[in-house]
Amino acid sequence: MNPTELEAYVDAALALHGFRLTDATRAEVLKQFTLGATIASGFLALPLGPEDEMAPVFTPVAHP
């Protein structure tokens, strides 16, 4: 997402959930979403091929 799209997403999500924030608090929420998007972009940029598999799913074992 570009900054304009991210800001629109944050505003829509806040409105959807009924949050009414001050401008300062909204700016902090937007800052945290921007940070998360920045961190995620590094992972999303990694190429994945057919040989890349998901991690195995944990299956608990019954106690004897």
List the helices and strands and how they pair.
Elements: H1 3-16, H2 23-44
Helix pairs in contact: 1-2
Keywords:
64 residues, mainly alpha, 56% helix, flat
Radius of gyration (CA) equals 19 Å
What structural class is derived from the secondary structure elements?
mainly alpha
Helix content: 55-70%
Number of helices: 2
Low-pLDDT sequence parts? none
Amount of beta strand: under 5%
β-strand number: 0
SSE run: HH
Q: What is the mean predicted local confidence, pLDDT?
A: 91
Give the N-to-C terminal Cα separation: 50 Å
Main beta-sheet strand count, sense and barrel state: none
Overall spatial form: flat
Describe the structure.
- The protein is mainly α.
- The protein has a domain at 3-44.
- The chain has two helices and no strands.
- It has helices at 3-16, 23-44.
- Helix 1 (3-16) crosses helix 2.
- It is flat, with a radius of gyration of 19 Å.
- The model has no long low-confidence stretch (mean pLDDT 91).
Describe, in short, the structure shown:
This protein is mostly helical and 64 residues long.
